[in-house]
Description:
Elements: H1 3-16, E1 24-28, H2 31-44, E2 55-57, E3 62-65, E4 80-84, E5 87-90, E6 93-97, H3 104-108, E7 124-129, E8 147-148, H4 162-171, E9 187-192, E10 199-201, H5 202-214, E11 219-222, E12 224-225, H6 231-242, E13 246-250, E14 269-275, E15 293-296, E16 300-304, E17 308-313, H7 315-332, H8 338-347, E18 362-363, H9 366-374
Parallel strand pairs: 7-9, 7-11, 8-9, 11-13, 13-14, 14-15, 15-18
Antiparallel strand pairs: 1-3, 1-4, 2-3, 5-10, 5-12, 6-17, 16-17
Amino acid sequence: MHATGVLEWLRSSLSHSGPSSGKHIVRFTNPGDYRKILQAIQARRSSDSCWRGVRRLGIIHGLSCPAAPEELPPAFRQSLVVEEDPLVRIHAVPASLVEKGIPWGVRRIRAPEVWSRTTGYQVKVGVIDTGVDFLHPDLRHSLERGINLIHRTMLPQDDNGHGTHIAGTIAAANQLQGMIGVAPRATIYPVKAFDYNGTAYVSDIILAIDWCVRNRMHVVNMSFGMQTKSKALLSAVNNAYHSGVLIVASSGNDGKRGDIDYPAGFAQTIAVGAINRQGKVAKFCNRSSLIDIYAPGERIVSSWLRNRLREMSGTSMATSHVTGAIALLLAHKPGLTPEQIKWVIRRSARPLRQNKKLGSAGELDVVRMLRVADRLP
Length: 377
């Protein structure tokens, strides 16, 4: 590949696109080409302002470009892959403010029954979301700094509430005055990729996954999704999986049958659906044979901004229960691979009470999960 030609094509695209042009991802099929172009861009960044909005996506050997590219020249079609960088949204339905103690979902999956054996101690959980409320008393013993991908010099402080709610279900530890999560001694690393509206670009998600892999998270919670199947996002998820980092993703809240959102639709994730207090699949939940496990997701109480608790519904909430359960599993039996964890989660599930057409996925049960894991060599 001729590096000068690629740089000229990229620069022309960046210079001629207007402010309304969509963002795009450019991936290099050859890692050596990617490194060569990246070095050239870094050398030009200080003297040429058009390169300042270009971000490296190391986990997929790609670049995030804040503009629509010009038509890809035929000479580069074997070495470059260009795709749109679409928006992704969090999966939640706001509800009301509120019960303290152990929420019904944490009890439903039987987490308290295993706390004498495992509490998630020393398990690193990446939460790619809107950030967290660092001042929340329910979370103060559960948080590390993480990273803010929107404003790199700032803490990943939550300005939406969704990320705080997710973190609380996973690892809140304030039972007497607030609430307690599934794995109260796990450590949350908030990765703020979503803005105050709960939206992010695919390139932001890829950067977040890259950070989680580089910083050796054990499990990553991704309570969001989109209907578009992004090859760039698949590449990042696949690379994380083969690096030993398991991603837990929500199926979506559109009530669809036979279809779920991405990244949950990728085989390398654990795809999560939502049930209600009666153990039935929630009406809002997308349903498909691609779902690996169902967990509590309707009227879930968890931490919220400004020291409060809030009740919310969504497959986002179900996903955080599963992530917490995996933290319990990894503290109990360290070193399990993503493939083994996925097998244990599916194999130990309780059968759902209704609708046999949902495929083989059942309901999360932490006691059964540890029992199955104990039989592994």
